[in-house]
Every structure is written in structure tokens, then in C-alpha cells.
Automatic annotation (TrEMBL):
It comes from Aegilops tauschii subsp. strangulata (Goatgrass). The keyword Mitochondrion does not apply. Keywords: ATP-binding, Membrane, Nucleotide-binding, Transmembrane, Transmembrane helix, Transport. This is ABC transporter domain-containing protein. GO terms for molecular function: ABC-type transporter activity; ATP binding; ATP hydrolysis activity. Residues 42-51 have a biased composition (Low complexity). It is a multi-pass membrane protein. InterPro entries: AAA+_ATPase, ABC2_TM, ABC_transporter-like_ATP-bd, ABC_transporter-like_CS, ABCG_transporters, P-loop_NTPase. Residues 42-69 are annotated as: Disordered. It is found in: Membrane. Belongs to the ABC transporter superfamily. ABCG family. Eye pigment precursor importer (TC 3.A.1.204) subfamily. The chain crosses the membrane at residues 508-528, 540-562, 592-610, 616-638, 650-669, 717-735. One of its GO terms (cellular component) is membrane. Residues 149-389 form the ABC transporter domain.
Length: 743
């Protein structure tokens, strides 16, 4: 009602008003409500289209022409509105004031309206946004070493219960810069195994894999990006932090720290992650980014180094069709800049299928097709396999790879074979098969490819590449190239470890657990009296509990360290992001500030509530003793976790070990049999308990003495320091052994 009433009032007022409208060369224009609404829609549409065009980076002259045409039309519309409607707007200010006041909004005074608000729409804003987007988009177009990938007769075997089983049998193919090669096949057909071998993550049993006609070298690791099927990311890091740490570790030393951070921001804008850059990655129990955003972060981790080869293992799994299409379009854009992209795909939609340049179809470890994606359907049609109904080409090919001939025309050769088998079955009164078996279909497809296509493709693979010797020398270099030196790796990993684990170590649940335990202990031992034998034994029990509690707590925290980070460690070490020694030292030392925060709160509450010796020196010595116990127990947990790398096994072994150390701690049994008395020297509970007694009671009363006399405490301190170093050396050697076995 307000809109229609205002329009009628505007028309009447404009009819009575003269001035500039009558003297203008243009005819007087009367705007109706529909005209105003239409013009508003045009203006908003023009802005949206301009913004969309700039976001795309202005990919084509056609889009730019359309934007300029729309902008020119908007200029004319706006000029008409400003010139012919100037008097109309002034005359209708009262009406506008009524309308806006009615809706709760008061318009600004007329003299405060800036000329910029009445300026016609210009392409300058669009050009600025497009220029910024072009600067961001230029990252993928940076020059990179082109790598031509060839693989011929690749085979892979595994031993199953002592019997060798062939996973891949004679796979051949190639991929060139600027191409996206997709590997399709049913589950268990060997797609991931082949991708791992091409990416240098696994060794082929037989066959040849070459990069620019040269074998795989260590220097090639820094030119390869590998996105695993599982999104291996730190849960509590944000998107920006994840990509920034990857840039700091992986980019070359020639770049400054600020340049590396800028590269990370370029990747964020390039992948469209700017809206979630400050959001945690998240996981099973932590809310974070969506599945598509998480996958783009994984891709960003790899393309941040501007790789020549990019491998992806099922990047669209678990995503909806629209998000999957965006991921594949991103891969296509990356390939267009001269990079070689190879990906496995499970069951793509028809739109995704046609975006791949080349296709490898695997079935039961054998090659069923290799060639251009556009020629796949004509090839299978030429061998007599056609879909009988309209279906997705990818679905049709997967049905063939599975040996399923439902809704598929059966070739005459297969049909004849089925008739011959049926005749034999009739003679034996057996059940007749109306369709060929999956094994028959598989054998037919393998034979058809070998006789029709394989020879031509293998001949192409034998042809030498037109590349220079300098490019080959770059590939064959056996020298590793680290992005940072050892000290920089340590500092970056130390900071990353603090940010990642502070949420777990300083969670309210842990803080509440420690504070509640300390308050309960303080109440149970409230102002205990050590002057009586009974009170002395009570205090000794408290000291032993402190030794056991801060031996038990760190062990079961540390045993999860390496088993939980095993996938991340394997992924980052395979990419040569850092040295194992830098990771291990940073990982163990970054836990110390977090591990020592809660014991301070614990000791402050318990020490004074229980009425222990009120002396600053005794308090700080007790605190130092607890710190030594925590670091030694943490080393034991790291050693168990690194040796087993299995959470269930590590938890079981840690439970038995901690219980044994507790019983041998010198509180429950003071007269240990000689043949097992050596066990107490391995117990950090034993040495911690003796040191706490020495700090509180000097000399220690006879009633609390064990069979071994207590001297000045140097022996106990030396034993704890030896455990701190020894357990960590054992953990490091265990990780080395695992790395060597994986290699």
C-alpha cells in the first residue's frame, strides 16, 4: 500500500513540477512502481554478475564483453533515473520520509547525500576486483618443470599367508603436462596401489616407471604433490594455520618467511577458503569445516609448492555432486597451467566423467582400457559392448569392469561361448547360464584391449620425449632439497605442536580432574601431623600417591602420541617436509610446557592443605622431583607407543608396566626378595618416592626406611635423568625402524 501510494503521489507531484524537467532536451519520463522495481532488479543483477565475473578471474573476452554491455545499459538506466527523476526525487522526499519512518528507518538529510551515491555504475570497481582475483589466480600459472609420466608393464605382488598374490598385472599408460588422467575401476581393482607406485610411495615388483624418461629420484619428491584418500589433517588447527605451517616447511629457503605466509594466503583465496580461514579443521568430536572445504585444504597443502605432478586418491569420495564437480574443475584448472594431474575416481557423475582428458579402466588388476576419455565409449562399442538403456558412461564402464552385463549388449563371441557352455551343461543335466559369467566378461575385455589397443599404446611409450638433457638432470639428482634448515624445522614444529595440543592438555575436563583430585587429597590429609608415628605414615602414603599419580598420568597421555600421528608422520615424511630428528625433538619438548602446567596447580593445592613442610626450598624441591618423574614417565609412554604403534597393545603393555613399577615402588613391600629386587631400580615411582621422603624428612625416620639406605639423593636424580634420556632414545630408534621398514 505504501509503495503504490508513493508511486501515485510521485506521478502527481512530477506532473505539477516544472523546472529542469520541462527545459530538458529529453522527454519527461514518469516512473511507475514496476519501473523502479525493475530498475532495482537490473542494478542488483548487474552487480552480482560483475562480482561473479571478477571472482572467476575474467576467463574469456566474451564474458568481459557481456559485463561491459550490461554495465553500459546500467549507465543509461542510471542516467535516465538521475536526470529525469532529479526533481521527482526532491519532490518526493516527504513521501520517502513517511515510508522509511513507518518501517523504522530514518533517511539521511538531503545535503548529506554524497555524489558517489548518485554516480552511475562503472566498470572500474569490477576491474579492481578482477585485478585482485587475477593476482590470486596467477599462483597456479607460475612456471613449473613439465614432467611427462610413463609406465609400462607395471606389476605388483603381495604375500598372503606365504602365497604371492598379484594385485596389478602389466599396467601401461602415460600422462603429459596439461592433462588430467583418471583411474577408474571397482573396489579392489588396484587403483590406489597403482597411484602409490606412480607417486613414489610404493615400489613396483616389475615394470618401468619414468619421469621425463628418467627413474624416480629423491629430488623428485619436492615436485610431487600427493593427496591421500583420507583427509590427514590436525583437528585443532585452523585452515589458515594448516596452510601456513605447510608453506613454512615446504617452500624453498630462497623465500622469506613473509613470502611463504603470503603464498599460503594466495592458496586460501585461490581455493575459495577465505570465509573459513579462521575455522578449525575439526574431526569426529570437534566441529569444523565441511567435507568439501577439508578436501580443498588437503589439495592446498600439496599445490602450495607448485608441483609438477599432482596425485589424488579419490578426491570426490563422500562429497555431493556439486562439490565434487568443483573439485574436479579445480583439478582441470591446475592441469591447464602445465601440470600433470593423476587421480583415482570411484563412480563419477556424467559431468565429472567428461572433464577428464585420459582414462584408465582397471578390473581385477588388469588393464581394460587406456586412452582418451572421449574415445572410451566408441571403443567399447567397437568390441560389441553397448548400453541398452540411457545411462551414465562411468556407470556403464564400471558394470563392464565388474563383469555385469545387465542392460548391456553381449558381443557375439561371448554369446557363442555361452551357447557352447550351455550345450555342455545340457549333456550333464546341469543348470543353464543365460548370461556370460563375470570371469568370461573380464577375459574378453582383457583380450580385446591387448589385440586392439595395447600394441599402439606401448609403441607410443617407447618413443623418446623431445626434452633437453638439463630437464633430465633435474629429475635424476639424488640430493634431497629441504625447504628449511634443522633449527627452523624444529621451531616451526614446536609452535605447531603447542597450538595443536593446547586444546587437549588445557581442556576444562583435564583441569577439573586435576583440581578435584587435589582438593580431595587435601581434605583427606587435612593438616596431617608428622610428629606421631601414625601421622608420619599417613604423610608417607600421600607422598607415595603423588609419585604414583604423576607417573601414571603422563604415561597414558604419551602412549597415544605416535600411534595417533602415525598417518600424519608418514604423509609429511614421504614429502620430505622435515627430518625425523627435528620432528621427534619438537614433539617431545612441545609437550613439556603443557605437561608441567597442571602439576603446579596440583602441588599448590595439596602441599598446603595437607600441611607439608612450609618451606620455600622444600616446596620447590618437591615440585622439581615431581617434574623429573613426569618427564621420565612421559619418556616411557613415548617409547611404548613408538615401539608398538598400536593403541590397544600399547595401553595393555603400559598398564602392566605401571602396575609393576607401583608395586616395586617401596611403599607396599619394603623387603623385596633378592632375586627380583633389581626391578625397583627400573621404577621411576621408587626413585620419586625416595626423593620426596628426602625432601620432607632429613634424616628420614627409620619407620619409613626401605632396605636400601637413603643418601643425599644424587643416585635417585641420576636414575631419573637416565630414564628421561634412555626412554626417548628408545622411542627415536623405534620410529627410525618403522620408517626403514616402510621405505
Amino acid at each position: 500500500w505504501t509503495r503504490s501510494w508513493s508511486a501515485r503521489w510521485w506521478t502527481a507531484t512530477a506532473g505539477r513540477s516544472g523546472g529542469a524537467s520541462r527545459t530538458s532536451c529529453r522527454p519527461r519520463t514518469v516512473l511507475s512502481t514496476a519501473d523502479v522495481a525493475s530498475l532495482s532488479r537490473k542494478s542488483s543483477f548487474g552487480k552480482r554478475s560483475a562480482s561473479g565475473g571478477s571472482g572467476a578471474g575474467g576467463n574469456s573476452h566474451g564474458r568481459s564483453h557481456i559485463r561491459k554491455s550490461r554495465s553500459a545499459q546500467l549507465k543509461l538506466d542510471m542516467e535516465d533515473l538521475v536526470s529525469s527523476g532529479a526533481a521527482l526525487s526532491r519532490a518526493s522526499s516527504a513521501s520517502l520520509g513517511f515510508s522509511f519512518t513507518f518501517t523504522g528507518f530514518t533517511p539521511p538529510p538531503q545535503d548529506m547525500m554524497s555524489s558517489a551515491e548518485l554516480a552511475p555504475f562503472s566498470d572500474d570497481d569490477v576491474d579492481l576486483e578482477a585485478a585482485d582475483t587475477t593476482r590470486r589466480k596467477s599462483l597456479m600459472a607460475e612456471p613449473t618443470l613439465p614432467i611427462y609420466l610413463k609406465f609400462a608393464e607395471v606389476k605388483y605382488r603381495v604375500a598372503v599367508k606365504g602365497t604371492p598374490r598379484e594385485i596389478l598385472s602389466g599396467i601401461s599408460g602415460s600422462a603429459s603436462p596439461g592433462e588430467v588422467l583418471a583411474m577408474m575401476g571397482p573396489s579392489g581393482s588396484g587403483k590406489t596401489t597403482l597411484l602409490s607406485m606412480l607417486g613414489g610411495r610404493a615400489t613396483a615388483a616389475d615394470g618401468c616407471i619414468s619421469y621425463n624418461d628418467e627413474p624416480f629420484g629423491k629430488s623428485l619428491k619436492r615436485r610431487i604433490g600427493f593427496v591421500t584418500q583420507d583427509d590427514v589433517l590436525f583437528t585443532h588447527l585452523t585452515v589458515k594455520e594448516t596452510l601456513t605451517y605447510a608453506a613454512l616447511l615446504r617452500l624453498p629457503r630462497t623465500m622469506t618467511r613473509e613470502q611463504k605466509k603470503e603464498r599460503a594466503m594466495d592458496i586460501i583465496y585461490e581455493l575459495g577458503l577465505e570465509r573459513c580461514q579462521d575455522t578449525m579443521i575439526g574431526g569426529s568430536f570437534v566441529r569444523g569445516v565441511s567435507g568439501g572445504e577439508r578436501k580443498r585444504v588437503c589439495i592446498g597443502n600439496e599445490i602450495i609448492i607448485n608441483p609438477s605432478l599432482l596425485f589424488l586418491d579419490e578426491p570426490t569420495s563422500g562429497l555431493d555432486s556439486t562439490t565434487a564437480l568443483r573439485i574436479v574443475q579445480l583439478l582441470h584448472d591446475i592441469a591447464e597451467t602445465g601440470k600433470t594431474v593423476i587421480t583415482t575416481i570411484h563412480q563419477p557423475s556424467s559431468r565429472l566423467f567428461h572433464k577428464f582428458d585420459k582414462l584408465i579402466l582397471l578390473g581385477r588388476g588388469s588393464l581394460l582400457y587406456f586412452g582418451k576419455t572421449a574415445e572410451a565409449m566408441p571403443y567399447f562399442s567397437s568390441i560389441g559392448c553397448n548400453p541398452l538403456i540411457a545411462m551414465n558412461p562411468a556407470e556403464f564402464l564400471l558394470d563392464l569392469a565388474n563383469g555385469n552385463t545387465n542392460d548391456v549388449s553381449v558381443p557375439s563371441e561371448l554369446d557363442d561361448k555361452v551357447h557352447m557352455e550351455n550345450q555342455n551343461l545340457q549333456d550333464t543335466n546341469s543348470k543353464i547360464n543365460l548370461r556370460p559369467s563375470a570371469q568370461d566378461v573380464h577375459e574378453y575385455l582383457v583380450d580385446a584391449y591387448e589385440h586392439r589397443v595395447a600394441y599402439k599404446e606401448k609403441k607410443k611409450l617407447l618413443a623418446p620425449l623431445p626434452i633437453s638433457d638439463d630437464m633430465k638432470a633435474t629429475i635424476t639428482s639424488s640430493k634431497r632439497e629441504w625447504g628449511t634448515n634443522w633449527c627452523q624445522q624444529y621451531s616451526i614444529l614446536f609452535c605447531r605442536g603447542l597450538k595443536e595440543r593446547r586444546h587437549d592438555y588445557l581442556s576444562w575436563m583435564r583441569i577439573t580432574q586435576v583440581i578435584a583430585t587435589s582438593i580431595i587429597l587435601g581434605l583427606l590429609w587435612w593438616h596431617s601431623d608428622p610428629t606421631t608415628p601414625k601421622g608420619l605414615q599417613d604423610q608417607a602414603g600421600l607422598l607415595f600417591f603423588i609419585a604414583v599419580f604423576w607417573g601414571f598420568f603422563p604415561v597414558f597421555t604419551a602412549i597415544f602420541t605416535f600411534p595417533q600421528e602415525r598417518a600424519m608422520l608418514n604423509k609429511e615424511r614421504a614429502a620430505d617436509m622435515y627430518k625425523l630428528s627435528a620432528y621427534f625433538l619438537a614433539r617431545t619438548t612441545s609437550d613439556l610446557p603443557l605437561d608441567l602446567f597442571l602439576p603446579v596447580i596440583f602441588m599448590v593445592i595439596v602441599y598446603f592443605m595437607a600441611g607439608l613442610k612450609a618451606s620455600a626450598m622444600r616446596f620447590f624441591l618437591s615440585m622439581l622431583t615431581v617434574f623429573l618423574s613426569i618427564i621420565a614417565a612421559q619418556g616411557l609412554g613415548l617409547a611404548i607407543g613408538a615401539t608398538l604403534l598400536d593403541i590397544k597393545k600399547a595401553t595393555t603393555l603400559a598398564s602392566v608396566t605401571v602396575m609393576t613399577f607401583m608395586l616395586a615402588g617401596g611403599f607396599f613391600v619394603k623387603r623385596v626378595p633378592p632375586f627380583i629386587s633389581w626391578l625397583r631400580y627400573l621404577s621411576f615411582n621408587y626413585h620419586t618416592y625416595r626423593l620426596l621422603l628426602k625432601v620432607q624428612y632429613d634424616p628420614v625416620p627409620d619407620i619409613l626406611m626401605t632396605s636400601v639406605p637413603l643418601d643425599n639423593g644424587v643416585t635417585e636424580v641420576g636414575a631419573l635423568v637416565a630414564m628421561i634420556i634412555g626412554y626417548r632414545v628408545l622411542a627415536y630408534l623405534s620410529l627410525r625402524r618403522v620408517k626403514a621398514s616402510n621405505g
